[in-house]
User: What shape does this take?
Amino acid sequence: MSSTSSVASALAVACAVGAVVFLHKSDSFRPPYPPGPWRKPFIGNLLDMPRQDPEVSFADWGQQYGDVVHLEIFGKHIIVLNSLEAARDLMDKRSGIYSDRPRFVMLCDLMGWANATTHVHYGPRFRKHRRFVQQILNQNAIASFQNLESRQTAIALGNFLKTPDNFADHITSFAAGTMLKVAYGYDVEAVNDPYVQIVEQAATLTVQIGNSYPISNLVEFFPWLKNLPLWAPLSGFRQQAEVVRQAVDKMMNVPFEAVKQQMSSGTNQPSFTAHLLEQYSSAGKGTISQDDEDDIKGAAGTLFAAAEDTTTCMIKVFIFAMLLHPEVYSKVQEEIARVVGHDRLPNFGDQSSMPYFDCVLKECFRWDTPVPLAIPHRLMQDDFYKGYFIPEGAYIMPNIYAMMHNCENPSEFCPERYLENPELVDPRDVVFGFGRSPGRHLASAAMWLLTSRIAAVFHIEKARDPDSGEEITPPVEFSTGFVRHPKPFFCSIKPRSEKAVRLVENALAETQAA
Assistant: This one.
């Protein structure tokens, strides 16, 4: 070997050694990741991930490791935020670098949600989708929906009178009917309305595939799995995803195409979709680009599905909580009687005069957090928090369940906690996620009106066993999924008096005359 080659080889070795030493020193000078469960080689925390109720396991880890917990799966970093302080410090105060969303392979590629608002990366298109919703559902515009909510409430109360045992279906019809009208101008005429059935099927299947751990989650870390042939081992999730994709496509497309056809014939009703289609069509001098149309369709579908499911969940929670806590329900009814009397139904003008009822609704949102894990965000650049390093690209997952259970006796349903400590955070400011959530105002208003009127006109009591006659006390159990519903339960719902029946009948007559 020549002396020149020897020198070159020595320099190469020296450079390699120097690079290793430099990288080692750089890494050693970098603050550590936040604490978390011990990571195994290559797979990291894959085997630690809970199969059910991940929010509960994450909260338990928070007790062990702190408010900010670090996980890693196949080299991808996940940061769980278990405290409101950490979530606000990062998601709100540093929103400029925490507002991006991951591109979920399962949802975006296999299930066809590429245009959904929640799965668009932060940037012009993301802000466009958010602007769409903000135009229609900002807090100042909510008053324009009060007549709609009154109409839907009257229909729901009438359904409760006719078939009280089907109360869960009536709640779904109420929430879906409200959002279908807002999003598409569509009137729900019956409990078994085909549009309601479409969204229920899509929601049910989406929750099922979200819970099909671990294979459906592996595709997020190994995107090439989405290309497995259907006959290959481990490819069952692809078949399931195709079924879900078809259901989601139907939910997105059927009402949207109906609005377009109605606009062509001049028969459409005012709606979120029609307003935006008209706006962008006028800007394009009678034409609208495919991108704009896809964005409007995605924003409308996402708005409808998200608000419908959350509203349905929380009204069920109210009935469930009042069933289990009749002493609370009695106080609610006494307050309504003092403010409203017995000759009319509550209306939005009564809200400020019913503080105890407001505390009950707060406690409903806290006791069963409707969306226990907020939709993950994606960190856009390296960041440091309280001496820890959070790498660019990390998934940031606020654990709203843990935040809402960071109080005394978190499992107890106790509205009085908000009267005793007015400084407690209002759960409604947290449970809809971080950043802007315009749909929260409509969902909260719809819940307030229906639940206050249910309390005004109905008794809610435990059902009785048909054989023994004994009361049936349902267990306090909630489903696992994106939205945390109470598990199905039985109860007895009856009108409080003949006058209460007439109030419902008069409300129905007013909606038919309008």
Summary: Strands lie at 68-73, 76-81, 377-378, 383-385, 388-390, 395-398, 458-461, 492-495. The first strand starts at residue 68 and ends at 73.
